[in-house]
Design goal:
Layout: E1 17-24, H1 30-48, E2 53-61, H2 73-83, E3 89-92, H3 95-98, H4 102-114, E4 118-121, E5 126-127, H5 135-164, E6 177-180, E7 183-186, H6 188-202, H7 207-217, H8 230-237, E8 246-248, E9 251-252, E10 262-263, E11 271-273, H9 283-301, E12 312-314, E13 321-324, E14 329-332, H10 333-337, E15 347-348, H11 349-383, H12 389-413, H13 419-442, H14 446-464, H15 474-480, E16 481-486, E17 490-495, E18 500-504
Parallel strand pairs: 1-2, 1-3, 3-4, 12-16
Antiparallel strand pairs: 4-5, 6-7, 8-11, 9-10, 13-14, 14-15, 16-17, 17-18
Helix pairs in contact: 1-12, 4-5, 6-9, 7-8, 11-14, 12-13
Length: 505
């Protein structure tokens, strides 16, 4: 009889749960900020006190509305890390801190459950890992949504009442002003720029030329973009606040979720308040500018879109090319304005079309060898669940900085930190957080890989049913080409999946 020897399995060491916490407050008040710091400290200590748990990070959004998820940077970072397989469990104080929109709440919990990730809501005593049904979560999520709607409606009622009484001007100061309480006060450095813009425009300088001049002089700006743009100048030239008046309720948020700001085109009344604040320019200057804008408006409406519009970019200066109708060519905007700014010469529209035809025919013949390997590599990347060490390091730095920030906030609330030191240190921390989050955005993640994969498959599908192209086809061009970089002797076509293929001019 054969002898059977039993080999006992080696007991696997219990794997620690990777637990993260999410915290949020929706106000800038000192009480709320103290609550925020308390949440941060509580969850950090709580998670690290559990031997069977491993601290997977703290995700926190300050002073951000909870009615929609897409405005919360750290909430989105939390979801991205969950999709990357870095988290097993999430702790949240309450459903209203997690989401005040039932649909967002249910969809997020469902997605997380697919990854095997449980969410524990402390206030409601709900652990989604133990739920047999989503009914309870749905009911509580609806209650949180109703609470949010009630708060929003009460706030809007108060603001609209102040509008009717002429007591409300704006909740955010436009360029050229600072907001002191509910009063607009002129900010001299920016007011000087406002006067320059109106004076230059009334003296014959066009909006594009004026925009270039503002950039050349490097005049101060308030927005995040590195340069002045045409729409900045147009906004200033048409804003009645610069002559001391206020038109309020230009935009509004509807009473249904999601709360997305919309242009008021007659849905709600507007209120015009004359002499509501100090003027930067005279009423006469403003009215003259409006007349001049109206005279030039027909020229703006005559602009047409062409197959190559907003597709051609200069490799030397980065400017977009514009069409020259009489010559049948496209020219770099900087070269058009001043040849000394950019030496790139105009290109024939016919040459671009011919180059695309050659590119298309080559791709049609060899696309299986060119595109299929890309699909294979992207599918491997999408399937891989290896931890990105650099991203983990960035997330750890973000968590550490957040803890420093909230510790400072708590000390400031108690009066233990001088205001100047608090402002200086928190400014440094916020700058570091911004830079780290920008770095994190640059690291490819699953969503970007999936997007590129889908675009590559779409090109393959198009080519599967295509025939050699006899003449330029606008629809195929737009479906395949993201942009074309014009080089000295080459057209570099960037496909919608990011692949760059070059053709001689």
């Amino acid at each position: 009889m054969p002898q059977v020897k039993v080999i006992q399995p080696i007991a696997e060491q219990a794997k620690k749960l990777r637990v993260a916490a999410y915290a949020r407050v929706s106000s800038d008040s000192a009480d709320q900020m103290n609550s925020f710091a308390t949440q941060v400290d509580y969850y950090t200590s709580y998670i690290m006190s559990k031997e069977e748990w491993e601290f997977a990070g703290l995700y926190a959004d300050e002073a951000v509305s909870g009615t929609t998820a897409d405005k919360r940077d750290d909430f989105q970072r939390l979801l991205a890390d969950c999709r990357a397989g870095k988290i097993d469990r999430i702790l949240v104080k309450s459903i209203s801190r997690f989401a005040r929109n039932t649909i967002d709440c249910i969809q997020t919990v469902r997605e997380l459950r697919q990854f095997g990730i449980a969410v524990e809501f402390e206030k409601e005593d709900i652990d989604t890992g133990k739920m047999g049904s989503e009914m309870l979560l749905s009911i509580l999520g609806s209650a949180a949504q109703e609470e949010s709607l009630s708060i929003s409606q009460n706030l809007k009622w108060s603001i609209r009442k102040r509008m009717r009484n002429g007591d409300f001007i704006t909740c955010r100061a436009p360029y050229g002003y600072n907001l002191s309480g509910s009063t607009l006060e002129i900010f001299p450095p920016e007011a000087k720029v406002i006067r320059f813009i109106f004076s230059s425009y009334l003296n014959g300088m066009g909006i594009e030329e004026l925009t270039d001049e503002l950039n050349r002089r490097q005049l101060p700006k308030r927005w995040e973009s590195k340069k002045w743009h045409i729409y900045h100048v147009q906004y200033i030239l048409t804003n009645e606040k610069y002559m001391g008046d206020s038109l309020v309720q230009k935009r509004y948020t509807p009473d249904i979720l999601p709360f997305q700001l919309q242009k008021n085109t007659g849905q709600l009344p507007q209120y015009y308040i004359e002499n509501s604040h100090p003027a930067i320019i005279s009423r006469e200057e403003f009215e003259k500018a409006q007349v001049l804008l109206q005279k030039k408006a027909p020229k703006l409406s005559e602009r047409q879109e062409y197959p190559l519009s907003k597709k051609l970019f200069c490799s030397l200066c980065g400017s977009v090319f514009k069409k020259q109708h009489s010559a049948g060519t496209w020219i770099c905007r900087k070269h058009y304005k001043d040849k000394t700014q950019c030496p790139m010469m105009p290109v024939s529209e016919t040459d671009i079309y011919r180059a695309f035809l050659r590119l298309f025919d080559k791709l049609l013949e060899h696309y299986s060898q060119i595109l299929q390997p890309i699909v294979t590599d992207l599918e491997k990347l999408k399937a891989a669940k290896e931890t990105n060490e650099h991203l983990v390091f960035i997330n750890q730095q973000i968590t550490d900085l957040m803890r420093q920030h909230h510790a400072l906030t708590r000390l400031r609330t108690k009066g233990s930190v001088d205001s100047s030191i608090y402002i200086e240190r928190t400014t440094q921390i916020n700058q570091q957080l911004y830079e780290l989050r920008q770095q994190a955005k640059q690291i490819p993640h699953e969503n970007k890989i999936g997007h590129r994969l889908n675009k590559t498959k779409a090109i393959i599908s198009l080519l599967d049913s295509a025939e050699p192209m006899i003449q330029f086809d606008e629809d195929i061009f737009k479906a395949m080409i993201e942009k074309v970089e014009i080089q000295q002797n080459i057209f570099a076509f960037q496909l919608v999946n990011g692949l760059i293929l070059k053709e001689k001019r």
